[in-house]
Amino acid sequence: MAAPGPVAVSRAAGSGRGEPEQERPLPLTRLLPQDANGVGGRAVRVGTRRSQLARIQTDSVVEMLRDLYPDLHYEIVAMSTTGDKILDTALSKIGEKSLFTKELENALERNEVDLVVHSLKDLPTSLPPGFTIGAVCKRENPHDAVVFHPKNSGKTLSLLPEKSVVGTSSLRRAAQLKKKFPHLEFRDIRGNLNTRLKKLDEKEDFGAIILAAAGLKRMGWENRIGQILSPEDCLHAVGQGALAVEVRAKDQEILNMVSALHDRETVLCCIAERAFMKHLEGGCSVPVAVNTMLKDGQLYLTGAVYSLDGSDSLRETMQTSVNYPQQNEDGPNDDVQHVGITAKTVPRQAQQAAENLGVELASLLLSKGAKHILSVARQLNDAL
User: Fold this and answer.
1) What pairs with residue 40 in β-bridges?
2) pLDDT at residue 88 above 50?
3) Is 233 a catalytic site residue?
4) What mean pLDDT, rounded, does the chain reach?
């Protein structure tokens, strides 16, 4: 039965939880040769960026795999990416779609690693041929957080002094917050979380900086969060807060292994978000933002596009049913991808409905002039 099409709703989606399903790991039959002691002959090699946050995220994924497959060995292979090396240029100005993923994917292609852990928001909506997202783990808080300079402790953005400088590396955040808080100035800030917090604390350049709440929580720095930005203040990035495990699409044994990590709600929300972004042909060089909610079998997606200064924008919400049971879908199409995600443990009809939702919402915004807003934003960003 075909999935019904999404329908528009007038209210914006907020935060909410769906009904999580307990997934069982798919069987592993050939992954590692077993010796007399039942111990595998080699380690499962896990690629990651070198940053502290990336290592924490990768360690959390490896721990989940250890719980599921305690007899396997795991080796973490850390490397630097283009995005880690270029720290004096805004992300939106570099022009490389795979800033934080290319080197890791090269290692995956050369069989130097078996899987790679990413922040899902770093992965383009179109992956290179031969790769797939084999797991999308349960999402952490996807919203943005404000970390204030110690002198502004206890304040909110609305209470910061006139002309206070707020640091962010995101056009999406700046575009939304410029309109919401016109008394503030926004300036680019680069570096990993440690570097950006150090710049905030040790200098007087910034009154506050905006970071992903998920990263701060994973680093154990929740006490630094002075304000969580609601969807009314700032819609979040596509895939923000979710971890993705990228694998070789033909490596069935590794794909089966990591598929047990899929979180159904997160998968459906992120498929819708990525489909929305892909149909808009958006990226880090234009301000595109989303918010999703799964409740009572209904998936709600809010999506928006903005001019660089936030003065021009389009924002709509649509919903669709994703209330489908898991069926026996083995066969030639059981590895079908939805915007780069292969989710064997999530009902295929639900995935298709989520993807259709993203495409339909993007089409609605395009019909109202989103292409012009994004085209002007991209040209202005290139000219700056």
Assistant:
1) 34
2) no
3) no
4) 85
Helix (H, G, I), strand (E, B) or coil at 299: strand
pLDDT-derived band at 174, boundaries 50, 70, 90: very high
Would you state the structure tokens that stand for residue 358, as one six-digit string?
């993203």
3-state secondary structure of 86: coil
Q: Which two tokens stand for residue 61?
A: 């994924």
Catalytic residue among 67, 71, 122, 201: 122
* Residue 252 neighbours by CB under 8 Å, 6+ apart: none
Q: Supply 11's token pair.
A: 């209210």
**Residue 365: which of 320, 329, 290, 314 has the closest Cα?**
314
Contact 13, 318 (CB under 8 A): no
Both tokens of residue 256? 């089966």
Residue of 164 and 43 predicted with greater confidence: 164
Amino acid identity, position 128: P
- Closest to 211 (Cα-Cα) out of 175, 239, 241, 248: 241
Helix, strand, or coil (residue 317):
strand
Residue with the two structure tokens 């958006």: 282
The sign one gets for the Cα dihedral 86, 91, 92, 96 is positive
pLDDT in tens, 231-269: 999 999 999 999 999 999 999 999 999 999 999 999 999
Per-residue tokens: 132: 């797939």
Note the pLDDT of residue 169: 85
pLDDT value at position 326?
A: 81
Query: Do 268 and 151 meet the contact criterion of CB atoms below 8 Å apart?
Result: no
Instruction: Tell me which residue has tokens 């903005």.
Output: 306
DSSP 173: H
Q: Strand pairing of 208-212 and 165-167? A: parallel
> Which of 182, 206, 186 minimizes the C-alpha distance to 196?
206
Helix (H, G, I), strand (E, B) or coil at 158: helix
The reported pLDDT for the residue numbered 42 is 63
